[in-house]
Write a structure and sequence with these properties.
5 helices, single chain
């Protein structure tokens, strides 16, 4: 399931920070991302691979550089899932409230 891959990718705080950076900046190279994080460029490359597997980032080659950008489309499925689960819990809590305060 695509949503599972997105949740797996988002489970890591470094990858979440990379997504935030790409959302703010638009594009960045692996070297540029590594300059802002307390990890090596090689570690950034591994995180980018995980984000690409989840289809959260796109890579575009420009000369000798690869620029990465956010693809937020997979987040829509996650948002939808969270909305459904949240609505179910809202309904359960409302039923509990009515039971406790008739």
């Amino acid at each position: 399931m695509a949503t599972d891959a997105v949740f797996a990718a988002l489970a890591d705080p470094t990858r979440r920070r990379m997504i935030e950076t790409l959302a703010t900046r638009g594009t960045a190279t692996a070297t540029g991302l590594a300059a802002e994080l307390p990890i090596t460029r090689q570690a950034v490359a591994k995180h980018l691979t995980a984000l690409k597997r989840a289809r959260l980032v796109r890579a575009a080659r420009s000369g000798r550089e690869t620029r990465y950008s956010l693809d937020a489309a997979p987040l829509a499925g996650v948002s939808e899932w969270v909305g459904v689960v949240g609505a179910e819990w809202d309904a359960r809590l409302e039923r509990l409230r009515r039971t406790l305060n008739p």
